[in-house]
Amino acid sequence: MYLRINWLMKQTFRLAGFLLVYLSPSAWAKPGDRWEMNLSPGVTELGQEVYDLHMIILWICVAIAVVVFGIMGYVLVAHRKSSGRTPATFDESTKVEIAWTIVPTLILIAMVVPATQTMIKIYDTSEADLDIMITGYQWKWKYEYIDKEGGENFSYMSIMSTPQAQIDNLEPKGENYLLEVDEPLVIPVNKKARFLLTAADVIHAWWVPALSVKKDAIPGFVNEAWTLPTEIGTYRGQCAELCGKDHGFMPIVVNVVSEEDYAVWLASKKNASKVDLSVKSKDELMASGQSLYEKNCAACHMANGAGIPGVFPALKDSPIALGDVNEHINIVVNGTPGTAMAAYGAQLKPDVLAAIITYERNAWGNATGDSVQASDITNFNQ
Amino acid sequence: MSEHHGPAKGIKRWLFATNHKDIGTMYLWFSFAMFFVGGFFAMVIRAELFQPGLQLVDPQFFNQMTTMHGLVMVFGAIMPAFVGLANWMIPMMIGAPDMALPRMNNLSFWLLPVAVTLLISTFFMEGGAPAFGWTFYAPLSTTYAPPSTTFFIFAVHILGASSIMGSINILATIINLRAPGMTYMKMPMFVWTWAITAFLLIAAMPVLAGAVTMMLMDIHFGTSFFSAAGGGDPVLFQHVFWFFGHPEVYIIILPAFGVISEIIPTFSRKPLFGYSSMVYATASIAFLSFIVWAHHMYTTGMPLAGELYFMYATMLIAIPTGVKVFNWIATMFGGALTFEAPMLFSVATVFLFSLGGFTGLMLAIAPIDFAYQESYFVVAHFHYTMVAGAIFSMTAAVYYWLPKWTGRMYNETLAKTQFWIAFVGFNLTFFPQHFVGLAGMPRRTPDYALQFADFNMMSSIGSFIYGFAQLFLLYIIIQTIRSGKENADEKTWEGANGLEWTLASPAPFHTFSTPPTVK
Ligand code: HEM
Ligand SMILES: [Cu+2]
Ligand SMILES: [Cu+2]
Prior knowledge:
The complex is a heterodimer of chains A (382) and B (519). In chain A, 42% of the residues lie in helices and 16% in strands. Chain A is an alpha+beta fold and 382 residues long. Chain A has three domains: 121 residues, Helix Hairpins (Orthogonal Bundle); 143 residues, Cupredoxins -  blue copper proteins (Immunoglobulin-like); 100 residues, Orthogonal Bundle (Cytochrome Bc1 Complex, Chain D, domain 2). A five-stranded mixed beta sheet of chain A has the order 3-2-1-5-8, with no helix packed on it. In chain A, strands 4-10-9-6-7 form a five-stranded mixed beta sheet. In chain A, helix 3 packs antiparallel against helix 4, helix 7 packs across helix 11 and helix 11 crosses helix 12. Chain A is elongated, with a radius of gyration of 29 Å. The N and C termini of chain A lie far apart (94 Å). Chain B is an all-alpha fold and 519 residues long. In chain B, helix 2 runs antiparallel to helix 3. The radius of gyration of chain B is 23 Å and the shape is globular. The chains are: A alpha+beta (382), B mainly alpha (519).
């Protein structure tokens, strides 16, 4: 008997040791780790608070579970029929019922207090240092920096940059597979950034765990969220609300930079958002048009212009792409209300639109020979 | 006195069935078939998620799979399975000759294959099947949906009509056909849970019908209920959906609670502990389920007061749920336990459902739900409640009453083996999903970042094991029906109580021609 107990204890310790080493969150808490298995406090004070609350609730649940399942496990072993028992006959006890109603109620009240405090903090979007409007599109994000001094806003689209070949397993997958974009959001460290979220088509949700932000982007509504990162770095997230075909492929990347770097970036960005109105040759337009088309339009209309029958119309041989130029410009600039075709006039600059439309009218055997200039778009808009 | 005729012959027996056992049998086989259809979709999902990258399906089809998996499992498998169980067991448990409304019973069953055929046929339509998730949030399900959505709407209407008719029938039976002496507070727990579930269904299904009707109007008749461009409100959809949807999750779990409350006393050889508190707990869960719906919508930007209210109300549900779990454990306490297959599945339900209850409580806490919402953590939560809660207890019910239904005993060794395969497979599938969810993996994506690869592979392997366990279950059932050991005892289980165990095995075609007297 003594030997068996000794052996049992040894095994228990080995198991506990194993669990401690392999399962404790701290052993695995490096972000991006393959065995990451817990929330991360991230790089904000709020995130730390949410993490602490999560751990408190988790441990309370674990403690209740140990007691309840402990008793259950004991009963399952000790009260087996095979141990030669006659069953008891009791079937009620008001005292016990009252006890196990009251005790959980008290535990819940204890949980509510910190939960309410943290909730109030999450909703405190006041006194932000900068405001950024985030618009969800099928399947990309638009970031618009709002100039509080009344200067001009500037905006740009942020699109996943993982090559299709990696997704299709034709190339080895990069380190940040599916979590990389062409142009990240950039915000300064130690400043409170307020996000104003909306969407142009369906509901999306903007989620960056390390910044402790998740909020739905809903067409027709403007939701608010905020973050105050305390560490410089690159933080990644994804859309968190099913938004159609490429919901899994609209990541978010946020660069948190020093204040000086932010100022430099801001200036260069403002410059770059100017529209290039110079006249381009058809070849130039076609060349830039192809990559811009693939980035902005191919998710629905497909790289070969064939669309997805019944869901997204083809552009190859389509009456629009072969017909009147102005009608083509109109549909791209203003979209088709009530369908997935967005109004791209609000998303892309005239020079970009010109290149794309030129490409659509001349690619895949669509031989109209037309070239559309940025000025055609700006004239159209007037 | 009743006429002593048997069932009609051939196909007519089933097409024109009015006998509660025949209809119950059809419900059970139908739901089992749907379980395999929904399970097949799940296997496609898990096979695609076995490794990062796209291997088997394209993203649009993947979304069709997740959508149809959820719809088929909820509306085709779980709900009809418990209606089938109600059909078989309620008349036998309350000493009734049959269900109160046998012809309506026939109609409510035969609507199901119609609805499901309509739903599945959308796969073959231009644009494919619905791909907007089983929660079908507008405007993804209206303006941006494939043309087949209209058929989906029609299917939901038919399913709703079927459920409402089934519920009316169950209530009419329970209210009118109880044997003399069977007062409400003497009814078996399974009957009680179904009575309350039927109320939930009658209250909740019309709300779902309203939601899909508004969708239909938005799609075809130019209204803008859910379209912001026309002055409508996409969030309204979510309020209406979850006003149905949260009661729906209790529609799924309450009959399962009823099953557990029958089986645990039998194998503990001890009466159910706290019967009346069980009844009150069930009723309060049902009431609370109507006032907590927006806990699914914490990140939609409700006002702070709304967030706090829905958090407090949701946390309250943990109290009656806890009472139920404690009562089950107290029932076992002091008993003389044996672990035949129905008991194994029941104990596993208590254990695993409680884990789902704990994660439910975590999700209820609004500020931390911001971190969990729409991640795999939620997927883990609701599979612990719906699979380990509803499906495990359904399996327990099948093993428990199969000898009564067929007059034949299943093979205990095979059944226990099946349990352990299902138990291991289930946990291997869904436990790691807590981890990837907390680590930041969003749900409903066909592909994922590399750091989630290992847990996902584990999960996929688990799901294949779990899928195999269901094929094994099918085999065991067929083997029992065809060549199981004859079991002519009225009372299959030593510790069993209740009127169904006073009937011959297999149960006679007409249940109680003369009502038994209950003391
Ligand atoms: C203690 C009891 C429970 C509590 C407190 C609870 C709480 C919650 C909360 C707060 C959510 C929303 C999470 C989110 O989306 O962020 C949720 C999701 C869900 N729960 Fe529960 N739950 C409980 C029991 C159940 C039961 C019994 C079932 C079903 C049998 C269930 C099924 C679901 C489903 C299906 C979802 C996800 C729906 C979706 O978004 O697709 N839950 N639960
Ligand atoms: Cu999305
Ligand atoms: Cu709910």
